[in-house]
What does this fold into?
Amino acid sequence: MNSAYTFSLLQGLWATVVLSMLTFLFGGLVGFIVGLARTSPTWVISRGAAAYIEIMQGLPLLVLMGLCFYGPSILGYDSLSPLPAATFALTLYSSAYLGEIWRGCIRAVARPQWEAAECLGLNRWQRMRAVILPQALRIAIPPTVGFMVQIVKNTSIASLVVGYAELSYNAKIINNATFEPFLYFGIAALMYFAICYPLSVQSRALERKLNVANR
Amino acid sequence: MTYNFDFGAVLAYWPLLLEGVWTTLRLTLFATVFGILIGAFCAITRTDGPAGARWVVSLYVEFIRNTPLLVQSYFLIFGIASMGIRLPILLGATLALTVNIGAYTTEIVRAGIESIHRGQLEAATCLGLSRTQTYLHVIIRPALERVYPALSSQYVLLMLASSIVSSVGVEELFGISNRIQSETYRNFEIFVVLGIIYLLLAVVVRAGFTLLGLAMFPRRRRLGTPL
It folds into this structure.
């Protein structure tokens, strides 16, 4: 194992982190809208969001990557380069899961809170912004941190169809040259673990902290 | 927009696609069966085993759950090949998927086991059930019943995730599409067709699990609580 390989793996790790953060940012934004739409009292909007979630959760991420990679060029745009295509696909994918998680959190806010807000004469947006969302946010933190682990793991799939050079891609390239799979994939796995494990632990700790009433 | 869609060129390969669907379903089935076995065994070990074994199981679960399936497949399949062992690729892929899903199943089943009330175990002792009987009838079965919805959605995700093993050369539904791609150059159409097939498969597999659940846990059906 020489320094060039180490550097390549670290570069891959950085690319994984970049893609994960972009995904979380955009996936979070879209997911927030999906979550709100899913809890909307308007039938068309909530059913539309439900259909979106259903479709995204029924597709393998690989297929979604392919659609996002080849789709834009068909609509007459320039074909996307790997990073935007991967971000696009991962955003669609995570927004469905985050939307579903956050829908649950919004629904979990106790019913009397909704009623009290209504009695105070708050309109729908005021009620959401001042009463429901702040409380839903508290409930949402542990599962959201938990889902970040999924995002980091899913970025590995960006190495396949779209060919984004992240950690598992670089590890595979190195393995093709050296043929020492246990060593290089082992190191790559440890690097993923180093990112994901703290997030998992944090998610569980937050959940325990939040669940203090039922302990 | 000047692009002419040509789904016919892709759909002409339907026997190949069907073959891919069959392989995907077989992979999913084997990984599900072995995954449940490993999961139940590890979950029991983790809640009621010797300290050393508990530690090994939690190491396994944490490590698998915090690394991507893709890297696990590379590690296992290329790793085994590098040791000079020639494994049929389908067997290797089943192994990788099983190791992966086993860890998730362990966590889910463990949650089920921990939800079994202490009184149930005491009642089993009072009735004079043996340890094996207690495990089979009082712990595992009700635990599986309780976490069945979580388990079945995990296995639907497994079916979708099995597309990842195409990257090590398995010709399941996704892998076989590479061949169609190189013969037709109809990339986008292929992905649309694949997407529709996977969506249908997800619906079918989910329905299958629901029916299986109704057959396996008749008690709950009589009580009228939906699965």
